[in-house]
Write a structure and sequence with these properties.
Elements (H helix, E strand, L loop, with lengths): L2 H12 L3 E6 L7 E7 L4 E6 L7 H14 L7 E4 L3 E5 L11 H13 L12 E3 L2 E3 L7 H19 L5 H12 L12 E3 L8 E4 L2 E5 L5 E3 L2 H9 L5 H10 L4 H11 L1 H11 L2 H12 L3
Helix pairs in contact: 3-7, 4-5, 4-9, 5-10, 6-8, 9-10
Length: about 290
């Protein structure tokens, strides 16, 4: 999108002139900018020029986190399918010794936000991909149908995953209750905690961005963090002070849960992620 046109859209949406626009790195979908407004405010602007823009869903997820939890997230200033404007949060990316403790406290508190069923009131997104969230009281069934089978099928449709591996995913999904229990209470999760979605400033946690929320077994959040090495041992030790972590999570379930984010990466990028999915399936006999 030409910057002059974007400036005009921002002026109309925010009722404020734009002093400057600077392109930022990051963002799975569209373009990301830092904008200085006439009133002195600095904001982050996302633009989605795709055929089916969905930035309004990201706006809705951030607003939900802001109103239903204490987790630090950017304030949404304007949200529409093609245009999202958020509070700019200062960050230098330099972690201090307390970041893992602060993240553990924040995420444990987030996981204490509960619901009566898994899923969500609406479908959400991860990396621009739709997350189907029909309500369910059976966690293994929800995870099998709406995470494993669904993402494997979409990866095949996108020609990123072979049929044989997809069938192996389905085989595991058919027998998922052998491997994971249904937790006592569904917990609200951020859903996409990798390093790029954690803002750090002056040695402290500043905010989490780009959520992929729904109500789930919170272990899937912990597994995702382990997969991408977002945080280390201090995080898990602190988290377990708030919410004890079963030993079987570390020895078995985290690998199973991580088949889903690996399938997301297969759908988005293909390549070596397919081999990672296959290796994990072998661990469980599929």
């Amino acid at each position: 999108m030409p910057l002059a046109k974007l400036e005009q859209q921002l002026t109309e949406a925010l009722d404020s002139g734009v002093c400057s626009l600077h392109s930022l790195t990051g963002g799975c979908v569209g373009e990301v900018y830092r904008a200085e407004l006439d009133g002195g405010e600095t904001v982050v602007v996302k633009v989605d020029r795709g055929k089916h823009p969905k930035l309004d869903i990201e706006a809705s997820m951030l607003r939900y986190l802001a109103t239903h939890s204490e987790i630090p997230v950017p304030e949404v200033i304007y949200g529409a399918p093609q245009l999202l404007v958020m509070q700019y949060i200062e960050h230098d990316g330099q972690p201090g010794p307390d970041v893992e403790i602060e993240a553990a406290d924040a995420l444990a508190a987030l996981h204490n936000v509960t619901a009566k069923s898994y899923g969500f009131d609406d479908d959400t997104l991860i990396g621009g991909l739709e997350l189907p969230n029909p309500r369910s009281e059976n966690w293994p069934e929800f995870f099998a149908d709406h995470r494993l089978r669904d993402m494997a099928n979409r990866a095949v449709e996108a020609e990123m995953l072979d049929i044989a591996t997809c069938r192996r995913v389905h085989g595991l999904a058919d027998n998922l209750e052998q491997f994971i229990p249904s937790p006592a209470t569904p917990s609200l999760i951020h859903g996409d905690i990798w390093g790029g979605n954690v803002l750090i400033n002056q040695g402290h946690l500043a905010a989490f961005i780009d959520p992929a929320i729904y109500f789930a077994d919170p272990e899937i959040e912990l597994a995702f963090i382990d997969l991408f090495n977002t945080f280390g041992e201090r995080f898990y030790a602190r988290y377990s002070e708030h919410r004890p972590i079963d030993d079987a999570f570390f020895t078995r379930r985290k690998d199973l849960y991580n088949i889903f984010p690996l399938l997301v990466h297969v759908r988005l990028f293909g390549g070596s992620y397919v081999h990672s999915v296959q290796a994990t399936l072998r661990k469980f006999g599929y």
